[in-house]
Amino acid sequence: MSAQPKQPDLLSVHPDRISRIIDVLSMISVGEFSPERTTIPIHEQDDLAALEETLNVFVRELAATRREHEDALVRLATSHREMEEKLSTIERQREAIRDLSTPIIELWDDILTLPIVGVVDTQRSVEMTERLLHRIVQGKARCVIIDITGVEVVDTMTANHFIKMVNAARLLGAYCVVTGISPLIAQTLVQVGVDLREVKTLGSLKDGLRECFLYLRQHAMRQR
């Protein structure tokens, strides 16, 4: 029985092609690949050609997947920036709405007025108080008129918010009056038992301004 002929060693027959395959695998392993750089030219149709073509297909698909991932990351980054810009715009709009809903006006030298319109809940009360105290310190105001003409309903909780606001302003040395108390609100406060004896209350903003002028004049006379 004759011996089978020995198959040739591919490494010895095609050392350049084997070396190229190894180079391509090395570049793939470190992520340095592209169809332009790592495509293996196929000149012969043999056993190695099938491996070379498989590597070429793998490199093309891998490169396509990487491009898709990079495009997805770019879209994600763009979406993130757009979302941040939208959130920033919303925050600026919210701040503008707060400024419009709670304007603090320098009515006269050393006199600030806070006209309140609408419903006053705990959150809004805290925001108004913070803004008012900031303006008192910033402008060194000595008088504050809190005008509630635009507040339709004043219950116990709302009245307590105003009392706390007045007390906080007093701690900063500002003289405070509350104006705009209608007969209906006055009657409601009496019925619910709210004690406003420690708060100077007046009927109109004009009366409040006159009261602040009187306070400033008396203060100036005491300083002489």
Description:
- By secondary structure, this protein is an alpha/beta fold.
- It folds into 2 domains: 10-75, no CATH class; 105-223, Transcription Regulator spoIIAA, CATH 3.30.750.
- 63% of the residues lie in helices and 12% in strands.
- The protein has helices at 10-13, 15-29, 35-38, 47-101, 122-139, 156-171, 183-192, 205-223, and strands at residues 105-108, 111-117, 143-150, 175-179, 200-202.
- Strands 1-2-3-4-5 form a 5-stranded mixed β-sheet, sandwiched between helices.
- Helix 2 runs parallel beside helix 4 (47-101) and helix 5 runs parallel beside helix 6 (156-171).
- The longest helix is centred in the N-terminal third of the chain and has 55 residues, at 47-101.
- The mean pLDDT is 84.
Sheet with the most strands, sense and barrel status: 5 strands, mixed
Instruction: Report the average pLDDT across residues.
Output: 84
CATH-assigned fold name of the largest domain: Transcription Regulator spoIIAA
The structural domain count equals 2
Main attributes of the structure:
2 domains, 5 strands, alpha/beta, 5-stranded mixed sheet, 12% strand, 63% helix, 224 residues, rod-shaped, Transcription Regulator spoIIAA
How would you summarize this macromolecular structure in one to three sentences?
The protein is of the alpha/beta class. The chain is built from 8 helices and 5 strands.
Protein topology:
Elements: H1 10-13, H2 15-29, H3 35-38, H4 47-101, E1 105-108, E2 111-117, H5 122-139, E3 143-150, H6 156-171, E4 175-179, H7 183-192, E5 200-202, H8 205-223
Parallel strand pairs: 2-3, 3-4, 4-5
Antiparallel strand pairs: 1-2
Helix pairs in contact: 2-4, 5-6
